[in-house]
């Protein structure tokens, strides 16, 4: 792997991205970069009326992630810290393709590419793949109020969207290593041996 490792952890809502990112940052002593979620002022409105508030929600996420990544990654390589992030910037398109349409989606795509095309990409992606039941269980367990009435149909489609997105990233970023973790079988929180298995896979590429 190139100098200044940049690891992104990805997966559908409830996969455990932030938890695993935090654990990996602590293990490797890398800088942890966490996305802003609950601070989004449109989140509650979005879950009540997706069509009405989707564009505002997606634009808030895009601009905040761009600012966060830009401040961290658009610095001289010699001074940049190794990073573990709990998202890949492409997740913005995963959600926008699902929630937006027509003119709004066209405008969003233009803004997305304008902001992100020159951002450095991760050296390595840890993709947590999990089925719908596993994700719903974890969403209920973490107890965010705005997620408790989550549309299972939306989440099921999101699982498929992530599979498509990972295939897209493989094609567009051939130098990026992608490690797929079976989130249905590996419990990296409750079973230390499962976490060590993930760490060992990452070390092969560091």
TrEMBL record:
Kinase recorded as keyword: yes
Keyword check for Kinase: yes
Active site: 86 (proton acceptor)
SUPFAM superfamilies found in the cross-reference section: P-loop containing nucleoside triphosphate hydrolases (SSF52540)
Annotated ranges, domain Deoxynucleoside kinase: 7-205
Annotated InterPro entries: DCK/DGK, Deoxyribonucleoside_kinase, DNK_dom, P-loop_NTPase
Top-level division of the source organism's lineage: Bacteria
GO molecular function, one term: deoxynucleoside kinase activity
Residues that bind ATP: 11-19, 138-142, 186-188
GO cellular component: cytoplasm
Keywords: ATP-binding, Kinase, Nucleotide-binding, Transferase
Family the entry assigns: Belongs to the DCK/DGK family.
Alphabetized PANTHER family for the sequence: DEOXYGUANOSINE KINASE, DEOXYNUCLEOSIDE KINASE
Protein name in the entry: Deoxyguanosine kinase
Gene behind the chain: dgk
